[in-house]
From TrEMBL:
<dbReference type="GO" id="GO:0050660">
    <property type="term" value="F:flavin adenine dinucleotide binding"/>
</dbReference>
<feature type="domain" description="Acyl-CoA dehydrogenase/oxidase C-terminal">
    <location>
        <begin position="241"/>
        <end position="389"/>
    </location>
</feature>
<dbReference type="InterPro" id="IPR046373">
    <property type="entry name" value="Acyl-CoA_Oxase/DH_mid-dom_sf"/>
</dbReference>
<dbReference type="GO" id="GO:0003995">
    <property type="term" value="F:acyl-CoA dehydrogenase activity"/>
</dbReference>
<dbReference type="InterPro" id="IPR037069">
    <property type="entry name" value="AcylCoA_DH/ox_N_sf"/>
</dbReference>
<comment type="similarity">
    <text>Belongs to the acyl-CoA dehydrogenase family.</text>
</comment>
<dbReference type="InterPro" id="IPR013786">
    <property type="entry name" value="AcylCoA_DH/ox_N"/>
</dbReference>
<keyword id="KW-0560">Oxidoreductase</keyword>
<protein>
    <submittedName>
        <fullName>Acyl-CoA dehydrogenase</fullName>
    </submittedName>
</protein>
<dbReference type="InterPro" id="IPR036250">
    <property type="entry name" value="AcylCo_DH-like_C"/>
</dbReference>
<feature type="domain" description="Acyl-CoA oxidase/dehydrogenase middle">
    <location>
        <begin position="131"/>
        <end position="229"/>
    </location>
</feature>
<dbReference type="InterPro" id="IPR009075">
    <property type="entry name" value="AcylCo_DH/oxidase_C"/>
</dbReference>
<keyword id="KW-0274">FAD</keyword>
<dbReference type="Pfam" id="PF02771">
    <property type="entry name" value="Acyl-CoA_dh_N"/>
</dbReference>
<dbReference type="Pfam" id="PF00441">
    <property type="entry name" value="Acyl-CoA_dh_1"/>
</dbReference>
<dbReference type="InterPro" id="IPR006091">
    <property type="entry name" value="Acyl-CoA_Oxase/DH_mid-dom"/>
</dbReference>
<dbReference type="InterPro" id="IPR009100">
    <property type="entry name" value="AcylCoA_DH/oxidase_NM_dom_sf"/>
</dbReference>
Length: 402
């Protein structure tokens, strides 16, 4: 069972409350998002009235403690919301997820004053927030960022350029990473990073051009430019020079959300393909009566449910703060996103010519799925992380270190 120690490590906790919540989110997705999918794809913008309805339902605050204006709920509830929203509109889920990439590090590493000031407006949907870490030359390599922050007259002055920042065009608050001191050695590149809470309307903060990526129409990323942005000392998030921990802790949790997003995409693509195979006739027979189609659908369902179980398991371990939750999150993100890509591709093939027609809305699943394999740490990085965790666990148990 290595690296796991007990069969109880594989327990998945799902309650009746989770199911009731799932039905509520699905109703919202079907009623508010589904009729607007083509409009969102065409205009590359999510209508404001959908955000307003989400605010009224409290969707912005799922997973955020009630003490800070949220709706409460555990990791499984957040996972279910991500899945159900992504089944219809991954772009809308990404917009909500960008908020969590801000609230998660503030809740874990922030001071009480920071939590009271910045979390409630986001949880209530009064403002949006974003997480600005990625740069043109540093994505999965968090330690490679070039943005700098220097102390000057009792404040921190940040200069740099962030890239692929989801939700930044609407964000009022951002968490921003910067190098506050040089790394002590090549092998300790991760040292010397610090995170800051930055407000959008501060002098020197500029939201640059939208980056026209292949998918997630309606919520595409922007560039963020930081030009001599002065940040007060009280807006340092966590400890100075220890920002790498802030980043990896945030992404360890965020990867479960991306896995859930991928499961939702795969679910939506499977449903479309299954329904089409029942309705479409070829040679005076429904498509589903042909083995080539039936086998594809069976494979799609098998991979989809495997990815769902893996994702729910990772969410359960994360909620328990199990020491293998990080490994589970990497596995879930890696497998679920590749399943989404595979299922979406098969859905297009089952649809034939209709599958590559933009108007039918099938090909968008593949465009969206491919992006999930890259952000929150590309999948090859997840593979490396899994093996490193296993080696570290084995050495820690069986080798006496000097």
């Amino acid at each position: 069972m290595f690296p796991f120690e007990s069969l109880q490590d594989f327990e998945i906790k799902v309650t009746e409350d989770h199911e009731l919540f799932r039905r509520t989110v699905r109703e919202f997705a079907e009623k508010e998002l589904l009729p607007n999918v083509q409009k969102i794809e065409r205009n590359n913008e999510i209508p404001e009235e959908i955000y307003q309805r989400a605010r009224e339902m409290g969707l912005m605050g799922v997973g955020i403690p009630e003490a800070y204006g949220g709706q409460g709920g555990d990791m499984m509830m957040t996972t279910i919301a991500n899945e159900e929203l992504s089944r219809v509109s991954p772009a809308f889920m990404v917009r909500i997820g960008a908020n969590h990439l801000f609230t998660t590090p503030v809740l874990i590493f922030g001071t009480e004053e920071q939590k009271r000031k910045y979390i409630p407006p986001v949880a209530k949907g009064e403002v949006f927030a974003a997480h600005a870490n990625t740069e043109p030359g540093a994505g999965s390599d968090v330690a490679g960022i070039k943005t700098t922050a220097r102390r000057e007259n009792g404040k921190w002055v940040i200069n740099g350029r962030k890239y692929f920042i989801t939700g930044s065009d609407k964000a009022s608050f951002l968490v921003v990473s910067a190098r506050t001191s040089p790394p002590p050695s090549r092998h300790e590149r991760w040292k010397g990073l610090t995170f800051f809470i930055v407000e959008r309307d501060w002098p020197g903060v500029k939201i640059g051009s939208k980056i026209n990526v292949m998918g997630l129409r309606g919520e595409q990323p922007n560039e963020v430019i930081l030009d001599n942005v002065e940040v007060p000392e009280e807006n340092v998030l966590g400890k100075i020079d220890e920002g790498f921990k802030v980043a990896v802790t945030t992404y360890d949790r965020g990867r479960v959300g991306v896995a859930a997003q991928a499961v939702g995409i795969a679910q939506g693509a499977f449903e479309r393909a299954f329904n089409y195979s029942l309705q479409r006739q070829a040679f005076e027979r429904p498509l589903i009566s042909f083995e080539g189609v039936a086998f594809k659908l069976s494979d799609m369902l098998a991979h989809l449910e495997s990815a769902r179980l893996l994702t729910y398991w990772a969410a359960t371990l994360s909620e328990k703060n199990n020491n293998l939750a990080v490994t589970a999150a990497s596995l879930a993100k890696m497998i679920a996103t590749e399943v989404a890509e595979q299922v979406s591709s098969l859905a297009i093939k089952i649809h034939g010519g209709a599958g590559v027609e933009v108007q039918t809305g099938v090909e968008r699943y593949l465009r969206d799925a491919m992006i999930t394999t890259i952000y929150e740490g590309a999948n090859d990085i997840q593979r490396l992380m899994v093996i490193r965790d296993l080696v570290r666990k084995l050495i820690g148990k069986n080798v006496e270190l000097a």
